[in-house]
Amino acid sequence: MTCPGALAHSGRAETTGQRQSIPNRSIRNIDRPGTYAARTFSVRITCATGAFRRVTVPHAMAGTEVEVDGLSADIAARNPMDGSIRLIEKQLETTDHIHLGQIMTYLAGLKAQSVLWIASSFRKPELSAIR
């Protein structure tokens, strides 16, 4: 499988020096763990490790679709500078309290120090909670 090399954010994919649109969801529940679309979207994010360096400190891949208390965290990454775990979670729609709860579960279960939450847009309640 070739890597599309895209960093997903705000409904767009970005590669070095190039932008391309990510098509809108055409079916419901596309980002449920285990579905083809969830795996391919996670692969797009995973393959963009170089692009993440512009967003935050470098990281090394620790795992994708990591099981935490019966749920699947999208990406767990390790900070090579201090060994801490960083959660990278994608959501193809506007943030909601369900994903916020899942993120809190992942943070606790993985003992992650930080989260990079990628979503099409953020609602005020979720922003307030993560600040």
What would you note in describing this structure?
Strand 1 (7-9) and strand 2 form a beta hairpin. A four-stranded mixed beta sheet has the order 4-5-6-7, sandwiched between helices. Strands 1-2-3 form a three-stranded antiparallel beta sheet. The chain is of the alpha+beta class and 131 residues long. It has a single domain, classed as Trna Endonuclease, Chain: A, domain 1 (3-Layer(aba) Sandwich), CATH 3.40.1350.10. 27% of the residues lie in helices and 35% in strands. The radius of gyration is 14 Å and the shape is globular. It has helices spanning 36-46, 49-52, 97-110, 124-130, and strands at residues 7-9, 12-15, 18-21, 60-68, 71-78, 85-94, 114-121. Residues 13-27 have a biased composition (Polar residues). Residues 1-27 are annotated as: Disordered.
Features:
4-stranded mixed beta sheet, Trna Endonuclease, Chain: A, domain 1, 131 residues, 27% helix, 4 helices, alpha+beta, disordered N terminus
| Topology pattern, helix = H, strand = E | EEEHHEEEHEH
Shape field: globular
Q: Count the strands?
A: 7
What gyration radius follows from the Cα positions, in whole Å? 14 Å
Query: Helical amount among residues, as a percent range?
Result: 25-40%
On the 0 to 100 scale, the average pLDDT is 68
How far apart are the first and last residues' alpha carbons, in Å? 38 Å
List the strand order in the largest sheet: 4-5-6-7
Low-confidence stretches: 1-32, 36-41, 46-57
Give the CATH architecture.
3-Layer(aba) Sandwich
Assign the structural class, choosing from mainly alpha, mainly beta, alpha/beta, alpha+beta, or little secondary structure.
alpha+beta
